[in-house]
Amino acid sequence: MTTRDEAAREAAALSEQLHKHAHLYYVLDAPALPDAEYDKLFQRLQALEAEYPELRTPDSPTQRVGGKVLDGFTKVRHKVPMLSIRTETDITPGGASAFDARVRKELGLAEDGPQVEYVCELKFDGLAMNLRYENGVLVQAATRGDGEVGEEVTQNIRTVREIPLKLNGKAPPVVEVRGEVYMKRADFDALNERQREKIAAGQKNEKVFVNPRNAAAGAVRQLDPAIVAARPLSFFAYGLGEVTPASEGGPDCPTQFDWLQQFHAWGFPVATQTARAKGAIELIAFHENIGRQRDALPYDIDGVVYKVDSVELQRQLGFVSREPRWAVAHKYPAQEQLTEVLGIEIQVGRTGKLTPVAKLAPVFVGGVTVTNATLHNEDEARRKDVRVGDTVIVRRAGDVIPEVVGVVPESLAKPDDQRGPVVTMPHQCPVCGSVAVREEAEVDYRCTDGLFCAAQRKEAILHFAARRAVDVDGLGDKLVEQLVDANLIRTLPDLYKLGFTTLAGLDRMAEKSAMNLVDALEASKKTTLPRFLFGLGIRHVGESTAKDLAKHFGKLDAIMDATEEHLLEVNDVGPVVAQSLRTFFDQPHNREVVEQLRACGLTWEEGEPAARAPKPLAGLTFVITGTLPTLGRDEAKDKLEAAGAKVAGSVSKKTHYLVAGEEAGSKLDKARELGVAVIDEARMLEILENGVTE
Ligand code: IVH
Fold this sequence. Notes:
5-stranded mixed β-sheet, single chain, binds 2-(butylsulfanyl)adenosine, D-amino Acid Aminotransferase, Chain A, domain 1, Helix Hairpins, 26 helices, 37% helix, 7-stranded antiparallel β-sheet, CATH 2.40.50.140, alpha+beta
């Protein structure tokens, strides 16, 4: 039992912590604690206040519904307050039974009385929004704010495609539809990928978002609607604010389920999983059923919500301290948890990408025990400043790989000499020891040795045997997996040493298939230089580059020995490709593989070198910005450089052309300011084809 003084001290400390974290979460969209940890502190404070009610001051964090109103947006007083729902702390089936029992008690239902009917919904993890429609037209969108006063974000919300600007069908004079603005996981991942690229390109003001909810909240509170439009948001409707009564022309919906159908008819997304349920048993079944589907949903949910279906019964049940008695949130295991970093390792992926991975003290997150979490790349690991010994927030949502989203402030505050070293990537592949490089404008280090590295063996063999490479008919991924795992193939030449007996002796391999494979291997030996070159899987050397190289040099040895300068003369070969070819052929065992393949009998016709390519764009400087419709930025750069142009990183008076794609930002403004010609991708391709014609 705590004494009153102890309780007062603890409550004051908890209040301060909760205020700090609420500010980070709601105002700055940059939480430093997982929700579950915040909830623990919150519940502890609630418990102290229940024991000593005089500690429950009006400014206690427990007395506030939600966030705080931001400066910078017009304030809106909600006509009907936007309340919160009680969270059932018990995440086992018992949570649903407890809620049903409370409802029955409040309604005075006898134990053998009728079952209460509920609507079961998903608890979306985004931010609540009030959408006001007058005569069917969206006139105002507001965040929840503190429940009484929210922020007006109408312009931003108009960019959300899933929110109708005009209601379908018959609309009442006034209706406020409430629901959750959220971001789908795939959209979130793509957004963060773009953010990482921007940061890698030196844009200091950009940040990586910790989870979809924060990304959504950040987007909604952007002061520039154009930025909001570039961050794909989604919406689900689930509730009602002010509405014209049925007697005055409003819809007649006696149940929550009717309302959801009405929202759907007006054009709002309503989650298809929504279901009616009778009594606790069906609530439990819903909770379990959705729990099984949770990982496969394209968005985050942190639980389900049960609501008494009948609007009349909802009215009878009413509210306690700003939470309705007729609804409850029943959660699932949290998708973010705290744990300790025990070590940091570098893993090599199937394509040679080196990824720093945090080894963690086992932690139960998102329904599974996690011991590894990705740190993505060197820049990310450093930006988050993750070190061995730190306490970190780990997130696992859906089927995706768990990731470290950040280090808690307490670990970051430790003196540097009491923390582990900063993450540094090795310059050698930890699997095969070959050179690992980070190319210009790339965030990842890669092992340069696709042919030899055990981590990449399967991928390299499949690529070599592919139809568009030397084409070994019938050599699919299952078989390659079997051959590599049985240690029958280590490098490409081993393929040609496989005899009929070895193949026929494999599990699930019929004699006839073994025979066919021997024939296919034999047939693949007679190939062409472009196919062979493409088959080696040299980074950035696609089919068409392989063809250009073959045409330009005629012979494989000439390509293997060409200097970077000489390689740059080839049509479509820029510095990135040239460097990649050089690094590949500078590795002695890559050359050895080529020699052994020749010794195994692989042959192709060789030709004479072509005349040197002209450089029609020599002397011109280009800058590329934004997302081009068909070409990647590296690709566009390579094409321009191959034609002799210089491609610079920033716009200046010396720039001749700015190639601008979608979401072009400050470079476009700069170009306009300086009077630099702005062209699109199509025009750039035309210039590449015909030279500068105007
Ligand atoms: S109903 C009076 N239904 O959870 C009841 N809320 O603490 C008002 N939420 O602010 C809320 N999914 O942001 C309701 N199906 C759902 C929900 C849901 C997510 C969020 C919403 C609300 C918070 C409740």
